Amino acid sequence: MAQATQAKASEAVPAAEVVVAExxxxxxxxxxxxxxxxxxxxxxxxxxxEPKEPAAEEKKSEAKEKKNEIQEVASPADxxxxxxxxxxxxxHVDPQKKALDELKELVQAALANNEFNPPPPPPPxxxxxxxxxxxxxxxxxxxxxxxxxxxxxxxxxxxSEELPKTSxxxxxxxxxxxxxxxxxxxxxxxxxxxxxxxxxxxxxxxxEADDDGAKTVKAFEETVVPVAAPPPAAEEVPPAAEDSAKKxxxxxxxxxxxxxxxxxFIWGIPLVGDEKSDTILLKFLQARDFKVKDAxxxxxxxxxxxxxxxxxxxxxxxxxxxxxxxxxxxHGVDKEGHPxxxxxxxxFHDKELYEKTFGDADKRxxxxxxxxxxxxxxxxxxxxxxxxxxxxxxxxxxxxNSPRIGKYRQVTKQxxxxxxxxxxxxxxxxxxxxxxxWYLAVNRMMSPFFTQRTKSKFVFAGPSRSAExxxxxxxxxxxxxxxxxxxxxxDRDFTAADAATDVSIKPSSKQTIEMPATEACVLVWELRxxxxxxxxxxEFTPSAEDGYxxxxxxxxxxxxxxxxxxxxxxxxxxxxxxxxxxxxxxSKKKLLLYRCKVKSCSESx
Length: 605
Description:
Residues 317-491 form the CRAL-TRIO domain. By secondary structure, this protein is an alpha+beta fold. The protein has helices spanning 2-22, 27-43, 46-49, 52-89, 95-112, 130-146, 169-175, 180-192, 202-212, 215-228, 232-235, 239-246, 277-287, 292-309, 311-316, 351-358, 361-382, 409-422, 437-446, 452-455, 466-473, 601-604; strands at residues 265-266, 269-270, 328-333, 339-344, 393-398, 427-433, 458-460, 501-505, 509-517, 521-529, 534-542, 550-558, 566-572, 576-584, 590-599.
């Protein structure tokens, strides 16, 4: 019976284990349920152990239900937590800021390694002929060959002629304890000798052997002593060597401290450590489409070129080309506040100036230095590299009456390459006006030298649309009179702060402009019509009904060769208005520019 009960108990245990395996979440309950079944099965009969199986099935079903409930509760929580985890992992990072941070780290490492310096010049080539150097190389090789090497133990073994009578004793002495009868006689004197003492000379040992009449002992000692003697380094030590051995070895000289990293400036701004440095680095990143390694390589090349070209010294140099001040000059700003630099190449129509500037290679090189010097000064004086500042400029190139590219083609290509490689993102817009037909062909030739980003900033306008194109980017009061605007030097009545108005006059139509005066004052105005070929007149009409109209400017025709800008004024003692009338009899549309202001009578005096 005991065996039967044990067998039934062993059958009950797997039922509980099944419950534990299928529902790990309720493992503790399943173990507690299985333990009483085992104890009851051992104590009770086999017939009473069978009813426990339904209970195990109930435990199993309850465990499955609890497991399903846990999964149902956990699944909504996981779904709710999913978006939060994804937002935490995939945070939005500004790629431009990331590229800037990477470039700053690379710049700091490059500064620490002095990588912004020009490469060192190649080492000088040796001048001594090869024949004179050959004996110097042969002497060290021949010296060791002449010095005899110390004899080893094997080389000093006696031959059969030296030991004719001791052929049995000699091998025993070499092999040591294999023949104790022969070794006992010479072994005692050898052990009594102190190790540091030098070995006894062979001549003295030979004399002792002659006195005793035993030649075999002499031969035996000559072969045994070198084996038992101390090493050769301990036998003969000169006094100087002993003193040097006692002295501690001299310490290696400490390496020279590394030179601090060079502080590199570009346009007067350090590459790192300044709020303006980020603006400089961003320019190089933009020029290389935010490829960090390419931007770093471009920055290194630009800094090295500036050192080799001598930019800092060039700023203080007097290049001596004052006649070029009317060819390249800066005047006003565009509608976004960028300084505007004008290049009037029509001045080179003067043959004397052309030859003086591009006559030979030295003159062209001098012109290139002058142009870079002018650009460097303009960058430092007119641009602001603080965050949010204006750090680029607009260039306007006037090609009216410009000579065709001839001698200055090479210097033009060189200038384009230098400016594009070493002055990135300094041009906000490049406007070409009065473009002749032949320049479009030249532009197609020069196009491969420009990047796509640079070409996207180019604007071309022919002679008939040059002024209108300029006015899209630059206000008329900021454009010089010579290029179709109203701005001129030493103007006592108007400044760049006095805004101008532009009006299109349709063909075969009139345009009137009214300027009111509310009290006794002086009205001042100026106007121009591009290309003129119109009629112009001005009159004052008082506000009072019984007042009389006063003709200020009698109507007259204005040709294209007339002065570009007309200025007028009228002092009134009563309220009223000045009316300007412009009549366009042509079949072309005309562009009218004008501005006016009111001055007090005392101010006008």
